[in-house]
Amino acid sequence: MISVPTTRAERAGSKPVTILRVVHWVGIVLVWLGALICLFPLAWTIEASFRPDSSFLSNPLGFNPGEFIASNYSSAFSQADFGSGFKHTVVQTGIILISTLFFCPLAGYGFAKFQFRGRRFLFGLMMLTLFFVPISQYIPLLLELNNLGWIDT
Predict the structure, then answer these.
(1) Can you spell out the DSSP letters for 49-78?
(2) What residue segments make up the domains of the chain, in order of their start?
(3) In percent, how much of the chain has pLDDT > 70?
(4) 15 touches 9 (CB < 8 A)
(5) How many whole angstroms separate alpha carbon 134 and alpha carbon 13?
(6) From CA 55, how far away is CA 71, in angstroms rounded?
(7) pLDDT by residue (tens digit) across 100-150?
(8) At residue 67, does pLDDT exceed 60?
(9) Distance between CA atoms of residues 40 and 30, nearest Å
């Protein structure tokens, strides 16, 4: 037997409006608003990086296309040797990646399949290093910032 639509909503092919549908769409709108709010500082930073310093200080939230210049980036790329830094970064990242992909599965297999004395201690020591790696990088970072003269400025 064929069912015949009886209400206007069924005939139009739309679903009836329920409180759950309204809450669902309000949630979607709130998520999109939150995403826009979170992306605003990034867009503002990128836009401000193209403006001269005087324009940014006098009107930080305004946008004037006449002052939109790229000389900030052209002078930075002409004065610094980014190729050498990029090459060193790629080499260092490659060495870390290859050694991690080689040694981590070996250690994981050893901890999972074998019972040996000191296994729990070594595993705890390995897990402890995950906590201290970011902290141990603060001292060289602070020394570098001090050498650049960027502390207390």
Answers:
(1) HTS-HHHHHH-SS---GGG---HHHHHHHH
(2) 83-114, 116-153
(3) 76
(4) yes
(5) 57
(6) 14
(7) 999 999 999 999 999 999 999 999 998 888 888 777 888 888 999 899 888
(8) no
(9) 15
